[in-house]
What we know:
193 residues, alpha/beta, 13-stranded parallel β-sheet, 4 helices, 16% helix, globular
Amino acid sequence: MFNKAKNAPPENKAATLIPPDTRSSATPGTPTSSARPSLSVIGGHTQVEGDINSDEDLTVEGRVSGIITCKQHTVTLGASGYINGDVFAHTLQISGEVIGNLVALHRATIHKGAQVSGTIVAPCLVLEDGSIFHGSIDMNPDNEVLKSAFNDATGSATKTSPKTSSPKTTVDKRAFASASDAEHDTTEAKAND
């Protein structure tokens, strides 16, 4: 029935095995240069109230109320995402809704369908057709807000007075006197007269 020789060499089973992953020769837990950059995701059914400091790319599909600081990486806001607060990032990709100030060291892109109310400070800005923007834009790379926000990230420490005990974000927020805030203050002052 079967025609198999008794003295036939054994089959080479190593050919059917999958070789081990040789992409990383480092020991476990040791970062490698070919490693994929890490990414944090705030899911579509997640709400965050408070400040976020991230040392990796951040994608927001849910809702965030607070300051997002991701100075050396990219912050991406998905089409269904919502941010109520300021965002400091190397690169910004905005497709959802933002009520707050956006500060990007490199580039900010406001995609079609996005709604942004606030101040945008970035040396390079892309506003796509179909996006909605209310506020002011400053594309001066020498902007004081940009310099102070990214002083550590750029490695170019400028000589400043000694730091006060108040948080830096408070100083940064005060630097954004938007037209709507000034208008509100004027209206309120008139109402109190």
